[in-house]
């Protein structure tokens, strides 16, 4: 009996020590409209939200009542939060310009960071973030909603399997009616339509999706050239920024057309891949169509109806925790990766410069 108790004790001790430690997560900012993803996240053992940084006390109190977190964990600065709760990682949910300052505060202390897309407001800020990440050996991930789409994963797999032949053209459309029309909060709208705090309007808010996906699809290729035009079709709602853009990327053998807009009549995040033998249509998070050419204009079509991605890829915070704990190693130039998002920011910066100056930007 005594031996059995000792054995059980050893087994339980081993079980405790083999469990992944709960990640202490800080949240930097509450003004981003997507912050509900972490505040309302179902209880899991992988992450424990230990601190929040937000200077807008009224907003913090409002969200405290809505989501049930204590105001005792709300701090007025990154330094105060870090000193008080010593987080392992921080998720950024404020304006995009703050991303660099958040990494500056976290990196020297070995605190990993995940930001909402895009990585930064400028290419120079993105490079500085990359340098800090390398110097202090921290992970910096960028979260995109399209990272959770099983249809995009299926499209990528079909492309790599050669189902549509060699890739020639990609069309990616992202956006909605516009932040004011869809009713985002005043706190979100204030910086989302500020060219300094957001880097631009629709060209950055939704242009980053296409640049990120194209960089992933091509396994880290930089385009040869970037050409962009922007318009302001809702001056009354977006007086300081563009709200419609078209970005053309050329590569040695491919072309991408990105169409980010705050003027779509319906919300959309869809992608079309055209190869030498057929086409893939990633229509939405759950439907994908594969068309294969038959002669001049005929084709076969197969429709795939897909569910959510498997764990941990159905939850960006689970991905973040698993990367930090060493359970997950992401593929090079994956959509979350810093190397992908540096190229994404180079594309966005070039697109902004192209639209501003009315000329094509040659990268190579």
From TrEMBL:
InterPro entries: Gfo/Idh/MocA-like_OxRdtase_N (IPR000683), Gfo/Idh/MocA_Oxidoreductases (IPR051450), GFO_IDH_MocA-like_dom (IPR055170), NAD(P)-bd_dom_sf (IPR036291). Pfam families: GFO_IDH_MocA, GFO_IDH_MocA_C3. Keywords: Signal. Residues 1-18 form the signal peptide. Residues 39-141 form the Gfo/Idh/MocA-like oxidoreductase N-terminal domain. Residues 154-280 form the GFO/IDH/MocA-like oxidoreductase domain. GO terms for molecular function: nucleotide binding. This is Predicted dehydrogenase. It comes from Maribacter ulvicola.
């Amino acid at each position: 009996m005594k031996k059995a108790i000792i054995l059980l004790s050893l087994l339980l001790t081993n079980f405790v020590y083999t469990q992944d430690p709960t990640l202490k997560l800080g949240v930097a900012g509450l003004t981003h409209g997507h912050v509900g993803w972490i505040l309302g996240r179902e209880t899991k053992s992988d992450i424990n939200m230990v601190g929040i940084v937000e200077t807008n006390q009224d907003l913090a109190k409002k969200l405290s009542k809505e989501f049930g977190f204590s105001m005792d964990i709300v701090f007025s600065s990154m330094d105060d939060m870090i000193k008080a709760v010593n987080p392992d990682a921080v998720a950024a949910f404020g304006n995009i310009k703050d991303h660099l300052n958040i990494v500056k505060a976290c990196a020297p202390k070995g605190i990993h960071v995940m930001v909402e897309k895009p990585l930064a407001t400028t290419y120079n800020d993105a490079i500085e973030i990359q340098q800090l990440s390398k110097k202090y050996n921290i992970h910096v991930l960028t979260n995109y909603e399209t990272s959770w789409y099983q249809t995009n994963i299926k499209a990528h797999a079909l492309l790599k399997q050669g189902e549509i032949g060699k890739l020639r053209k990609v069309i990616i459309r992202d956006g909605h009616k516009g932040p004011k029309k869809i009713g985002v909060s005043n706190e979100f709208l204030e910086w989302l339509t500020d060219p300094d705090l957001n880097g631009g309007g629709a060209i950055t808010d939704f242009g980053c999706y296409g640049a990120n996906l194209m960089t992933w699809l091509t396994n880290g290729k930089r385009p040869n050239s970037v050409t962009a035009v922007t318009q302001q079709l809702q001056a009354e709602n977006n007086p300081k920024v563009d709200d419609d853009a078209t970005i053309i990327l050329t590569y040695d053998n491919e072309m991408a057309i990105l169409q980010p807009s705050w003027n779509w009549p319906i919300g959309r995040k869809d992608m079309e891949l055209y190869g030498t033998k057929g086409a893939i249509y990633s229509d939405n998070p759950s439907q994908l169509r594969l068309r294969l050419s038959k002669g001049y204009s005929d084709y076969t079509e197969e429709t795939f109806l897909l569910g959510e991605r498997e764990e941990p890829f159905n939850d960006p915070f689970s991905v973040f925790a698993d990367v930090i704990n060493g359970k997950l190693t992401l593929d090079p130039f994956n959509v979350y990766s810093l190397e992908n998002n540096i190229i994404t920011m180079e594309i966005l910066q070039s697109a902004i410069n192209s639209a501003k100056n009315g000329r094509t930007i040659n990268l190579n």
